[in-house]
Amino acid sequence: MRRKTFSSRVILIFFGLIVFLIFLFALIQIITTNKTSKNIMEQNLSQLVVEKKELLDLRMKQVELEVKGLGGWLYGYTKEDFNIPEAEYKSYGDIIIDPKGKDKTSLFITNKTDMNKEVIDQISLTANMEDKFMKTIQRNKDIVCVYAISSEGVLRVYPYMDIGAFSPNHDFIEDYYFEEALEKNNPHRKIIWTKPYYDWAGRGWIVTCVYPVYINNELSYVVFADVTLKFLQETMGDFRINNLGYGFIIDYDGQIIYHPKYKNEPLNKGEKVYANIFDLNKNSSLKAIVEDMTKGNNGQAQYYRDDDNCDYLLSYTSMDRLKWSIGFDVNMEKYDINTKSYINRYFFIPIVISTMILIFGYYLLKKMAQPIEVLSDGAEKIASGEFIQLDGISAGEDIDTIANSLNILSLTVKDYMNNLIKANNKLEAVFNSISGVLFIIDKNYNIISMNRYGKKITQSLQKEPIGSKCYSFFKKRETPCKDCPMVKTIKISKESFKEMLHNQDIFHIWTFPIFDDKENIEEVVVYSMKVTKKAILEKEFHQREKLAVVGQMAAGVTHELKNPLSVIKGCNYLLKQTIDLVELDKELNIELEEIIIEIENSINRSENIIHNLLNFSRKSNVEKEKIDLAALLEQIIILNKKYIIDQNIELSLELQEKPLHIYGNLDSMKHILINIIENAIQAMPDGGYLKVLGRILSVKKIAIEIEDTGYGIDEKILDYIFKPFFTTKHKENGTGIGLWIVKNELDRNNGDIKVSSVVDKGTKISLVFQKLIIE
């Protein structure tokens, strides 16, 4: 009873300690997790608002560049002479319009405008902007409408607007967006943005980018680009806070630029938004935060709302260039971690598990004490010469009982002999359980013994291995194998290893010496294992690893080239703009334009090469996907361009149709095409002709043909080129698994291959794939 009471006390103390530690751990974990969650939330929200600001600023700048470019063209046209045939324009009521069709621009001149020569010149001049307007809309999807208004009230707009959009006496120079460009409202004559207003064409709420064009220090034209508030909504939308809050934009006066809760519809076309953020809420804490936003400050603040009894976090940043401020408002309650789930996870569940473990431990403790007493009693009987079966185990003196019992049992020969028998059986079992051919030979190469596995796999030889020479039994040779590892083992008295090739299979051979009592080698243990599949997989892995390194290097180089190329592109654009603004000699101007065009073409070619290299370096993350074989061929040709040029090879790349889509594994396609193209290049070290053709073979088939004028392959060995370790190259130049990999990858991707070749004339390889039909 005394031992049981002591055990119970130990278990109770241990149980109490576990409960206390678990409770302490759960409490610390809950506090730490809540603090971490709040810090992460604040950091994520701050990062999000900065990301949105940078994205919005970038897209607005792109719109501004388009508008400024149109202004530059318009200014340039004022230096040229244009005539407009009167028959091209018609009068509907009191409005003169351009009746070219709905795919062109619209022209509006109200009844307040005199059709004098200046107005006619303005009509002619803006007509030349039609193509520029159309390309601007096509180039920048954020812009929904571009137009220009002259100081005389001539309006040229794209896309086409219906005649009923304006009344006959509508004066465009009195519109809100035109007045914003006047010198009194824009004394610095720079690009500005309007506040939201309702579009005359009925496209909803818009903001307009305005650029005044001054000629001879007088406002002559104003160029406009309209952007809908849907553009702002798409920019501000973010899946990370969809269910937690919203984003909004205001200007430094508190006027709403975009707010998802402001849903008022306008009364009239051209009407401005007069909603102010301070009028939408009555929360004093929120008003204080918004007031800080209107001062152009950046920050993050928390406030409480009485309507839902929740805490909110508002993160905001300013866009000083536009005098706007962006804010993201989220519900902190929805962001918090569920404390109850953490209590369950770190408190109640571990307590239940710990209790079960302790109960099971208490049971084991009782079971462990019982065998000790039985062992003690049994040992005494065995010492007296009575061998009995030990059973009925119960508790006893732990340390003393175990020590005395082990001492007594160590005297029994029976157990010792049983252990020797078991050890011998184990050794024999190990010898026969080894997967691989294991045999022992004497110094004359005679096989003395062989394991069970070796006898089984050599049954096909129909010869008894014991007593046979190893080289005669396995390879039917008259003499020992060249570079036999046994010779080296006898020479150095140590184990040795050799990799040997036999019947297109690779074997790893190990030899181990067996010494007699005088430390002389008496016999040798030979262990042979066929590792053909493993070796092939290793070589295939090295090829894939090499391809990955090439991809990484290509990605690194292209990333390094993108930055200087972007600088060149920007400088070329500024040079082009500068030439448009400066009056130069006609011949010099033409020469500079040709230089700029050549620079632009070179930049485009470089960007295409960079795009191809980056696309090639992409690693496939899926088993199969849509692949453009035409693009992949162009990428591989680029990577091998140096070798093609160095070896004076004439290249013909013919893609009869782009794209050439199939459904397969991208990495497999890279291995297939790289192996075949590199083989063709290596077959022409002194130059030649390489033709790569991609074409649609039928409605459901795509063919890739690669033809070279290299060494060619003897027709007699064409049937062997897809076998592993078969190669026509020198040993140092080829492993013999390249085309084996090609064939395996083609089978994996449901492709076919045909090879035709003539020695000293060249080789043609045709690949056929299932065409991906895109509905």
TrEMBL record:
Highest taxon, organism lineage: Bacteria
Domain (Histidine kinase) ranges: 556-773
Subcellular location: Cell membrane
Annotated GO CC locations: plasma membrane
Alphabetical keyword list: ATP-binding, Cell membrane, Kinase, Membrane, Nucleotide-binding, Phosphoprotein, Transferase, Transmembrane, Transmembrane helix, Two-component regulatory system
InterPro entries xrefs: dCache_1 (IPR033479), HAMP_dom (IPR003660), HATPase_C_sf (IPR036890), HATPase_dom (IPR003594), His_kinase_dom (IPR005467), HisK_dim/P_dom (IPR003661), HisK_dim/P_sf (IPR036097), PAS-like_dom_sf (IPR035965)
KW Iron-sulfur (keyword) present: no
Reaction(s) the record says it catalyses: ATP + protein L-histidine = ADP + protein N-phospho-L-histidine
HAMP domain residues: 366-418
Alphabetical list of Pfam families matching this protein: dCache_1, HATPase_c, HisKA
Annotated EC: 2.7.13.3
Entry's transmembrane regions: 12-31, 346-365
Keyword Ligase: no
Membrane topology: Multi-pass membrane protein
Chief place of localization: membrane
GO molecular function, one term: ATP binding
CDD domains: HisKA (cd00082), PDC2_MCP_like (cd12912)
Top-level class of the enzyme under EC nomenclature: transferase
Protein name: histidine kinase
Organism: Senegalia massiliensis
